[in-house]
Amino acid sequence: MLKQTRDHNFLSITLNRQISPDFLEQKIEQKTYSTMVQTRVNLLSVQKTIRIVLHNLSLCKRNNMQTQQERHEAQMKAVMPFASMEDLPESVLDEIAQLSPHLPVVFILYYGGTIGMNKSRNAFNRIVYGPTDDAKKLLEPLEVKGLKEKIQVIWVPVYKKAIDSTNGRWVHWVSIGNAIKLLYDKATGFVICGGTDTMAHMIAAMRFMFPNIGKPIVATGSQVAMVDLGDDGTNNLYFAITAAASDLSGPFLMFGDDLMDGMRVHKVKHTRRQAFACPTQYIVGHYDDQLRIYPHATRRNPIVTSKRLIYKPYFREGIKIVKISPATPSESILHDANDSTCSAMLIITFGAGNVRDEDIVEEVPSHIDCLWQLYQRRYPVVLGSSMMDGVVDSHYETGTKAVSDKEGEGNAISAGSTTGPLLEVKCMVALAQAWDQTSKMLDYNKFRASMERDHIGELT
């Protein structure tokens, strides 16, 4: 209102005094120049504010990265080293000392889970199950039936305290890997016995850790605790021990009566005995009256001794896993990318890598628009299929735009044929490989290169 009054007074004086047009033009030019100067001052102020905000964001990002680094270093201290035989319990050393050279030797690396749980009543008088450290009793019914006459089995507790598998992380996988590396030359094979919720991740991690292993690592567990009638743990454990003593190499999962390639398994059932599934071509054997190994299963390689064994125990947390849905706005992934505990994102897409390329409301960004924004920030985004046998190789425009490297399009990283737990573990491997120890930050180009590379045959 004050500005309008001043302008009106200026015009009134000009008209009343009948000032020449030249004078009027000069006054208008002066006022225009004054406005331009003020506008420039305002712009400079805005630019300064933006620089301060960007600087603070940069500091915040560095602080977040520092926090990630500190967390990773703390986790590393929790890894069980198994650097020498002295790190094993005395009871295990006693059993190793008594081994016969005439029978196969299978080490069971136990970490917890349903298979070894006991039940108790909680404060509400409800029966609950919890991991126990005395699960070795699982071997008793097998020993009664003559197991010791066929295979020498040594039970090795990996942790001082058994865990529920929902607590399983890379720290636990590397602890298991360290034990395998230590005992490799003494073993015919290994069984990893534990919980099923993160078992698919754990056995996939074994392939990354031991890319050239010449002996079998067989994971197993149960759907029903050993203390309950009708438990499936005894059979699963025996089938896994048999597989670990057989002519196989690599990581596998033995569950129900199926022997599966450990890289491609997915947990699909809550209580049914066939808890896991995989694409048909990755079923490599089954158990009926005996173990039947199929011709395409990878066989034992005696040339690989502990000296020739490649061991890569490198993983890192910090992957934001997002499943896109009709229930979620496209721009939500921009907010997900601001999670200070994560450095990269894995998006589980529609179908074979498809994402939205338009929105119902014109001015609202689509997934493609958001992916482009994240690419400009050099924030890595991996696209994976939600299907067990899926491939991010879409023939639809919505999918091709997502991984297109054209300006304004998605520029996301395709996971190819890698899906499920295997893909999540690969992201953790790539994050570890791409982490710059000097800057304590993620190197975008190295992460992308690692994700696009075939490490262990995961890209088919």
TrEMBL record:
GO MF annotation terms: asparaginase activity
SUPFAM superfamilies associated with the record: Glutaminase/Asparaginase
Active site (UniProt): 114 (o-isoaspartyl threonine intermediate)
Occurrences of domain L-asparaginase N-terminal (ranges): 106-296
Binding-site positions, substrate: 165, 196-197
Gene3D superfamilies: 3.40.50.40, L-asparaginase, N-terminal domain
Pfam families: Asparaginase
Record protein name field: L-asparaginase N-terminal domain-containing protein
